[in-house]
Amino acid sequence: MTETRPSARTSRRALASVAAAALIAGGAIGSGYLPTATPAYAQALPKSPIEAPEHPPGSFAGIVNKVKPGVVSVKVKLDDSASSDDEDGPSQGRNLQNVPPQLREFFKRFGQNGPGGMQPQHQGPRGAVGSGFIISADGYVVTNNHVVDHAKTVQVTLDDGRTLDAKVIGKDSKTDVALLKITEGSNFPYVQFGKAAPQVGDWVVAIGNPFGLGGTVTAGIVSARGRDIGAGPYDDFLQIDAPINKGNSGGPTFNVNGEVVGVNTAIASPSGGSVGLAFAIPAETVQAVVDQLRTDGKVARGYLGVQIQPVTQDIAEGLGLDKAKGALVDHAENGTPAAKAGLKAGDVIEKVNGDTVDSARELSRKIAGLKPGAKVELSYLRGGKSDTATVTLGAMPSDGTKVASRDEDSSNGQPRLGLQLAPAGDVGLSDQGVAVVQVDPDGPAAAKGIEAGDVILDVGGQSVSRPADVATQIRAAESSGRKAVLMRVKSGKGQTRFVAVSLNKAG
Known about the structure:
The protein is α+β, with helices and mostly antiparallel strands. The chain folds into 3 domains: 23-47 and 61-297, Beta Barrel (Thrombin, subunit H); 302-395, Pdz3 Domain (Roll), CATH 2.30.42.10; 415-505, Pdz3 Domain (Roll), CATH 2.30.42. The protein is 19% helix and 31% strand. The chain has 11 helices and 28 strands. The strands form 5 sheets. Strands 1, 9, 10, 11, 12, 13 and 14 form a 7-stranded mixed β-sheet that branches. A 6-stranded antiparallel β-barrel has the order 2-4-5-8-7-6. Strands 16, 17, 18, 19, 20 and 21 form a 6-stranded antiparallel β-sheet that branches. A hairpin with a 2-residue loop joins strand 20 and strand 21 (385-392). The longest helix is centred in the N-terminal third of the chain and has 19 residues, at 6-24.
């Protein structure tokens, strides 16, 4: 249909231009953290959840009107320790010269230096902005660690327009959660965390401060759960398709009951704008961290003291497992709770307090979610037999429990696998094990990354000291019908790892 009013066409073109600018202004890996399911209510509201319809509502206005007063914009003045790299993030470095001329004024207006990564939007060279939400009437505020990292001063702007000073109570870089406290006033409207995790397909509403435009509301659904995007050691993100952009970091995502289900943290975008791939920290994770920050100002995590790695399909075959699940113990550090409980290299941890462990990363999350001193029951497999151990967790050192790289698979030694072997003591490499003297570049061991100078410590769970021991264990694996044999190998740098070599490829 032909538009008869030129003014309307002009207005629509202007709106389209602003909309395009807003899309491009988002970070390549944006900074929107979504909160996990959490009941969120403004102060003086009924304590019971809003009655949610079975089907999506025709409007989210009722939810927004109740929870929006508890959402704040966060403005940070950075201290001198924040370098330009800190502010821009790992995927930054673009400037206005890389931006189309018609969009430069938009970026300048909001302190944006172009499409960005997992960092808050900038307000000049030494400042940044993000989002947050109030969780108590006395003014505690949840946001992202990366929003307030290197903060010299922090201010929050409420929905009613008031701008108040706040201080950082505590922050946790491993989960990217921070807790603030408004230093003036009281009786603030607040929201609450949800007690139930959202399901994939549930409607959610995000409120935040994208590009400094505070009080912005977007809606979508939960697209996936349990996402690992490589942001930290305990990644377990909700993925949502509500539009999230720079400045949304630290803001809440609500379910249709008005409960916080996540904290917006990151976006994935090839264009720099929102493409419906946003990630939020689940509410249960945030609440556990916030409770410790509020009490102690820091987070203390349980420590098991094992180096672990994933159970890949070939490792599962080498161990005779039906499924590639659990966490494989590479070794237990001397004197740690794991060592005291008798855990050994080759054990596969399957459960923690009766809850199934699907992966090495999940084991790390479960142990880190417990406090030092807690007693846990571990169920594990050793030599094909199930066993349990009761462990009293220690306090995690600064680096915490190590998780072996997922790309650390290598191969083992045995003449049939393309290796020339010798007792490690005979070639001066080690007092124990079998040394890899030469590797056939076309053999299965080379394909797994085994190199000359590596030392094979055990094969199929049995220690080896001669090449004949390696051959014996491989024949035993073959005779038992296994498709792969599992070996523990020490590299020339002294690091050990498990390697599974497919027997059907050995020639």
